[in-house]
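ingest -> validate -> predict -> emit
validate: passed (alphabet ok, no gaps, 152 aa)
predict: started
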Amino acid sequence: MEQPLEALTIDAWVALLRSSQRVLENVEQDLKEAGFPQLVWYDVLWELRTHRTRGLRQSEIAEQMLLTKHNLSRLLDRMEKQELVERLLCEEDGRGKRVHIKKGGIALLKKMSPTYTKSIETHFGTRLSPHDKKALLASLQNLTNRNTPHNP
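emit:
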């Protein structure tokens, strides 16, 4: 007999959150054991490298990263002290600031990449078949597409 939709939805939701949390904890542990900063540092540097020529406003980073402005500001302060990023006045309005990755940030990103990649493969990639990965990707893309609810 099939589970009622509500129970199936809740079970899927809980499984998504638990698996995401567990994989992230494992990745964080791998980075820590390799002597690197937290994963959020990598994520910020990745976003900034992707937008290297124009940089990003703090609000744009916060939106991409789903961080509060306060937490992001403190993180950027620490990263700036380590000379990984810099905040420069916006050319378009002269009021706000854009965050840019510096050479030290690019270097740290390159150093962290092999550990991060191996960790993702170990804790995520090896646990799913190619078919499962495609199905998961399609399902997650379905969740982020706001225009098309899934109708069986």
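The chain has six helices and three strands.
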